Amino acid sequence: MSDIISEYEDRLPGKIIEDVKNSVPKGISDTKLKKIMEAVYDEYRNARVSSGEAVGLIAAESIGEPGTQMTLNTFHFAGVAEMNVTLGLPRIIEILDGRKELENSMMEIYLKKPYAGGKKLEDLRHLALQIKETKLKDISTEFAINLADFTIEVKLDREQMKELELTNNKVMDAVSKQLKGYNLKDNKDSLVLKARSKEDTFNDAYKTKEKIKGITIKGIKGISQVLPVKREEEFVIITAGSNLADMLQLEEVDAYRTTTNNIFEIEQVLGIEAARQAIINEIFKVIESQGLNVDVRHIMLVADTMCVSGTLKGITRYGVVSDKSSVLARASFETPIKHIINAALVGEVDNLNSVVENVMINQHIPLGTGLPSLTVKPQKAAKEK
Amino acid sequence: MAEVYLNSKFVGTIDNTIEFVQKIREERRKGMITENLNVYYTEKADEVQLESSKGRARRPLIIVKDGIPLLTEKHIKQLEKNEISWSDLVKQGIIEYLDAAEEENTLIAFFENELTPEHTHLEITPLAMLGYCTSLVPYGNFNQSTRLNAGSKNQKQALGFYASNFAVRMDMDVNLFHYAQCPVVNTIMHDTSNYDKHPAGQNIVVAIMSYKGYNMEDAIVLNKGSIERGFGRSTYYRPAIAEELRYAGGLVDQVCIPDKDVKGYKTEKDYRFLEDDGIIYPEAKVREGDVVIGKTSPPRFLSSMEEYSLASSTRRESSINLKHGEEGIVDFILLTENEEGNKLIQVRIRDERVPEVGDKFTSRHGQKGIVGLIVPQSDMPFSASGIVPDLIFSPHGVPSRMTISHLIEMIAGKVGALAGRYINGTTFDAEPEERLRKELLSLGFRESGVETMYNGQTGEQYTAKIFMGDMYYLKLKHMVANKIHSRARGPIQLLTRQPTEGRAKEGGLRLGEMEKDTFVAHGASLLLKERFDSDRTVVPVCESCGIIAIRDNYRNKSYCPVCGENVTINDIEISYAFKLMLDEFKSLGIYPKLQLESKY
Q: Are A244 and A262 in contact (CB under 8 A)?
């Protein structure tokens, strides 16, 4: 059995061979199997896209047409314990542009077995607090500058600190780690910072005061909100703000399932293949949420285009479009003068290989009926006669 | 203590606010301060807003004191006898105008019997909340508001008797409706606005049924007999204007029959209607291309010596002729002078418009539709009593739009036509439907308004009873004759050699970017090329320098302006737009070098 199947290994994709293996009855005769494999191969060949099909344009139309029906509004769930997520057209644009800064970045943190069960709710709360970023300004009531000696006094909020399980020492540690050149003094209800250098001015003190407000005391940088949610049998933590690299360092976090909606971050941490999958997932999620129906393969093609170069590239004039080999094609998409002038400076050659240029000069486009060309050279044929 | 603002500018503060506001209102009613001032007090912000600026929308209301309106029977009698006028009522402080802000401080009753001591104002009539055109919709209170909007919008586009001095007017692009009638189902607004002096529609018999699918998607089917009897006829007037302009150097345009040696002389046939003065005669039947006013202008560039010496013979032809697709009969000619004292000639051309497939008609309820078919009267369905509808309206237009007033008007119209009286259909104040139905029964018809009908072609009785009644229908100004357009070959633009744009210039229909994409998606490469061949050109290209070469047909030779004659030059086929782009590159100092290679 395996002999016959392995014959097809270089002709059929692994997934299909696997499927056949699993669905064929055990004691099947070789002739029957051969027939099945032949039929599968025929089906597979028929299902393939024929050469010269305008897959890219069809993908664009297939995503673009339902896109016109998408509501432009993002929904805000006021007052409900729900994260604010960009959805609809703005989100699709955000993904396709390959933006690094998202309007609403968000993570879904899955936890490893012992933590995910939810039996120890206290632990979960504890973990959530550990993740959420606490800045110095969140646990203090007042930042005051002593004009006499330019010391900065930070009055601490006892209640907040108790809630966040912070002690004065922990706060002092965090501040001293991130702020160099200052001496710290613990005054029980407040911290006093004094510059080590003597030539401190009011301006310096003021700058430092503003700076220390943003010092991270606890938690993971960038995570501004945490929300534990029960999904089926386990607890998942949803966060506003995203920091995949640091999050995966936490012991409790299940690195296999934890994800973010920031594709750029995924590319940085997990690599380009993961980014490709993330693009597909994110776009598909939006399209599905709008009740539209787009074949995934169109989205896959878009994701492939954005990732082929090895780094994430948006579908913008700086990204994918700037990689086009044809000057005329680039010039026909935004900022034509820039492209033409640059091409003129280096003496670029346009081989007129793709669609746009040929539409421009009114020649056959190299697609569909315009693709085949003569392979017989008439002179040669004549000579042979 | 409240802040006081006058026209949104802070002017001071006041302690006893309510007293202050009341005093202003009282003095306004007494006429001690201007009637144009409105006050608005908001407790929330604790501020008083006084408004007297222009551009506020205001509306009149009857003032109510202790639950009793100030307008009494006595006033109404005086009004009827013309002893007092509207402005007297305003001056006496019986009626006042409120703006949107002051309305917030009031409690307004709709009807007199609803009044309580808390009420401050009384609505003059519920109709007051509608505009002029909307008030013309009968039974409007049975409709969705959007339909009322659509209905009043449509009425503004209706053809009618637009001015009684139309015969001596020189209007651009106007329509005159023939045989206009007053509506049988009317409203108070029809009376108040003297609608009978300038009606805009006709009362016709409408049946709600389908007719072989020719009234799908809002289309309507017309009875040819009705059209022949004058339904929906109108005249379209369009003027042709010419001026004898004066140019620098004492040169002047001349209205005349152009000489044959004038630059741009058309053909003798085109000038055949012109009389000796160069102007067409009245009642001439003109078609597209015919000259209406013959005119010549002085040559364009006087500075050229050559032209100057031949000045008299090189005058340009600048006659006014009928454009593509226009036709009509010369109706009226006006000779006068313009502000600068130049001779001005206006010719009015009239064109009778008989309803045809594609013309737009509407009832007064936003139920507009295009004529889909004109059926001979013999083929129209007829009722048991022999009534043949003038128009067949599709039943699919009703459920989704919920224009109940359309249906009620049909019943009301039927009653009105049979009983020989006008039916009052004023919104909120109409003759009740119940009574109309009873009257219809007493007139010998089914009270539901349906009738047994027969197929006009086979004579068979229809299984369904057909709802039929009389309505007021309007012809809208959108007529196919003004819009129809097609082109196979035609004029092209000078710069790009692509077809011109628009109906007036006999332009082509653009196959745009997205339409192009659909061709590409289908892989229809050769079809796409053929479709874009409108500006195809063949240009010679120098093989050595890649610049467009020159073809000299006299010497039957091609040469390159850069490399000379001893180079290979090949012809290539490209779009003219691309050739133009190459030229623009060259003018920018960019060298677009074409590298030729055999396609095969």
A: yes
